[in-house]
Amino acid sequence: MGSSRADEVVLVKAMVYRGPYKVRVEEKARPKIEHPNDAVIRVTLAAICGSDLHLYHGMMPDTRIGHTFGHEFIGVVDEVGSSVQNLTAGDRVMVPFNIFCGTCWFCSRGLVSNCHNVNPNATAVGGIYGYSHTTGGYDGGQSQYVRVPFADVGPAKIPDWMADEDAVLLTDMTATGYFGAQLADIAEGDTVVVLGAGPVGLVAARSAWLMGAGRVIVVDELDERLERARTWALAETLNFTHVDDVVLEMKKQTDFLGADSVIDCVGAEADGNFTQHLTGAKLKLQGGSPVALNWAIDGVRKGGTISVIGAYGPVPSAVKFGDAMNKGLTLRMNQAPVKRQWPRLFEHVKAGHLKPSELVTHRFPLEHIAEAYHVFSSKLDGCIKPLVLPDAA
Amino acid sequence: MSTDQQTGRPAGGPATPHVAHRRQPPPSADELRARIPGWGADLDHADRPSFPKLDWQADRYGAHWDYPAQQPGGEGRERSIEHAQLTPVFGTAQPLHGVSGAVRRLAYARYSEGRLAHWMLLIAGDRIDAWGAHARSFLSGRPDQPFTETGVVTEVTHHGLASRLRSSRTDTRHQVLDPVVVAGPWVAAAVGAFLGGRALVRAVRS
Ligand SMILES: NC(=O)c1ccc[n+]([C@@H]2O[C@H](COP(=O)([O-])OP(=O)(O)OC[C@H]3O[C@@H](n4cnc5c(N)ncnc54)[C@H](O)[C@@H]3O)[C@@H](O)[C@H]2O)c1
Ligand SMILES: [Zn+2]
Ligand SMILES: [Zn+2]
Q1: 126-155 of B, contacting A, C-beta below 8 A
Q2: Which of A94, A134, A301, B182 has the smallest count of CB within 10 Å of its CB?
Q3: Number of Cβ within a 10 Å radius of residue A215
């Protein structure tokens, strides 16, 4: 066991949850090696994900006061446990948002986002950094230091040619959007609708082309994000607040066939139906507001595929399952198994097919974490992807 | 614009899904390749990273064990009763404590993840934890400050109003509820304290 600095308490700065819509920076004890295959990483760059907003809004059960969020981060290995072989102190590493063991029933078959050996609190979800106790109770990377379990399995050394801002966005956003496009089972010439022009949706739209889509249509309500969908994802766009009935509009724009596949990159806090948003996102009477998912079910063609990448809570939601059944749909979904995507994504980033850092709009010092969350949550100032700099003065 | 103009479909004939083929074929592969860098690079389904879904991973992602060593200190650690045993690795970030801890422990010990009660108890535990932490913060050196902790100052520094007026966004309609979510419990507590105090005063006087 790593016993090196076990008894001295060193304080480090970390983002801390203080209740719904409230976060601040606190000093915490530097994380320790707790298992022989742990590493402690000094974080050099982190990001805020749309998923963090579900925690921030108090929607994820068992989000404890004092929890440090953050599952997108890169850093430098500071200390390794006694059984770590693949990393040494000083290595620059990128860490997938999934915590996984590599050898359980699920990991052995590539379902690393569904690992069974890292999350005692639930069997229905794997381990995720800084994502409440429902995903295992690990503090996350919006912090100066973070504990990384299974250091031989998850992290990868950052290739020399890769920019830090691309590397940090490969730990979730980029891998997730790309995985979402894969789940949509796109065949050459397909019409693909992407719901949500957040960072994940934009990457999904861009990735749909890599898989051979013939048309890509991105739906959102924020004009500056739809502008990015046109210029960055090279897609057609639809602002759902400009039409009376989105489903009908999707049908009209696809010659009444419906899209071959629809990718839900919105999740639990969808807008577009006030009652659903109120009961799902605000009053927490549902596991989230399934507006986008229902639009996907009704907007896709019969026999088509829906890819669900948006996150929903564990409490039941009012989903239009009857339509999904009657239409013979295929529904595919998961938390993204990030590391399984990396070899291919490294090629795409290197070739310039995907350049995730282009979506970064804001860079906040860790000290300004409350501001960062408010700007990203309320979609102020054209914010698309905010980064967090743990060491900026 | 008539539907026919909109879709480019020849006027008169049956519309697309009423017949076997699309009336509007997609752009050609050459056209797409010229317009979109990397178009079709991952055309082959069998060559996509997560295909097939279940795919034996011979390299184990670098793991060099059949079953991982057990992390020490797991005695009493709460766990889903759908787990046959404690997992070999687990988070230790915020151990259960106090009343919220008791409620959460009950959720884990009594109900599977398939039961609504499991999740409702956890949500109740979250609210108790938050109220308790706010109350305790006033006894600590660092009381909660709703103003700085909500980052609302960015409404001024990051163009709150202009950002909302720029798009025809509908989320602003329920964002007005956000302060209610933040301040609601405080207001309720204040009203409760006032009513309780008044009742006490009356009881003492009579
Ligand atoms: N499966 C995974 O592994 C995984 C990983 C990362 C993120 N996620 C989830 O993906 C989702 C998107 O993440 P993000 O970082 O892009 O978040 P985000 O909040 O920045 O983006 C969501 C977008 O959806 C838009 N939107 C709201 N209601 C809509 C509707 N009815 N139709 C269309 N668009 C709508 C919003 O305006 C916003 O632009 C979140 O739910 C997040 O939790 C999942
Ligand atoms: Zn995420
Ligand atoms: Zn595993």
Answers
A1: 126, 129-130, 132-134, 137, 142, 144-146, 148-155
A2: B182
A3: 21
The DSSP letter of residue A269 is: B
**CA B184, B185, B186, B190: dihedral to nearest 10 degrees?**
100
State whether the beta carbon of A176 lies less than 6 angstroms from ligand 1: yes
Sequence spans of domains, chain A = 11-172+337-392, 174-333
Query: Other C-beta atoms within 10 Å of A2: how many?
Result: 19
Interface pTM, i.e. ipTM? 0.95
A with B: how many residue pairs have Cβ under 8 Å apart?
338
Could you identify the atom of ligand 1 that is nearest to the CA of residue A334?
1
Give me the mean pLDDT over the A371-383 stretch: 97
Is B194 near chain A, with CB under 8 Å? no
Tell me the C-alpha distance between A253 and A238, whole Å.
10
Binding site membership of A193 for ligand 1 (Cβ less than 6 Å) = no
Global confidence as pTM = 0.94
Is A11-172+337-392 a domain of CATH 3.30.450.40?
Answer: no
Question: Domain A174-333 falls in which CATH fold?
Answer: Rossmann fold (3.40.50)
The order of strands in the sheet holding A259-264 is A236-239, A215-220, A191-195, A259-264, A300-308, A330-333
Inter-chain touch B166–A224, beta carbons under 8 Å: yes
Shortest-distance Cα residue to atom 20 of ligand 1: A198
Q: Are A93 and A158 in contact (CB under 8 A)?
A: yes
Instruction: Please report, for chain B, the start and end positions of each structural domain, with discontinuous segments joined by +.
Output: 1-68, 72-144, 158-206
Binary contact (B80, A340; C-beta < 8 A): no
pLDDT digits (tens, 9 = 90+) for A175-232: 999 999 999 999 999 999 999 999 999 999 999 999 999 999 999 999 999 999 999 9
Output the CA A358–ligand 1 centroid distance in Å: 18
Q: Residue A386, by phi and psi: left (phi above 0), alpha (psi -120 to 50) or beta?
A: beta
> In DSSP terms, which residues pair with A298 in a beta bridge?
none
Contact A260, A305 (CB under 8 A): yes
Subunit contact B56:A108, Cβ cutoff 8 A: yes
Using one digit for the tens of pLDDT, what is the confidence trace for A15-67? Answer: 999 999 999 999 999 999 999 999 999 999 999 999 999 999 999 999 999 99
Relative to the alpha carbon of A54, which ligand is closest? 1
Q: Is the pLDDT of residue B4 over 50?
A: no
Burial class from Cβ neighbours inside 10 Å (0-12, 13-18, 19+) for residue B193 reads: exposed
Residue pLDDT, tens place only, A55-67: 999 999 999 999 9
Averaged pLDDT for residues A127-144: 98
Nearest CA to ligand 1 atom 43: A51
Contacts 24+ apart (CB under 8 A), B19-28: B22/A255, B22/A257, B23/A255, B24/A255, B25/A189, B26/A189, B26/A190, B26/A191, B26/A214, B26/A215, B27/A214, B27/A215
Q: Which of residues 73-112 of B touch A (CB under 8 A)?
A: 73-74, 77-80, 82-83, 86-94, 100, 104, 108
B126 CB neighbours in chain A (<8 A) are 58, 61-64
Compute φ and ψ for A30, nearest 5 degrees: -60, 135
Which residues hold their Cβ within 5 A of ligand 2, which is an ion? A 49, 51, 172
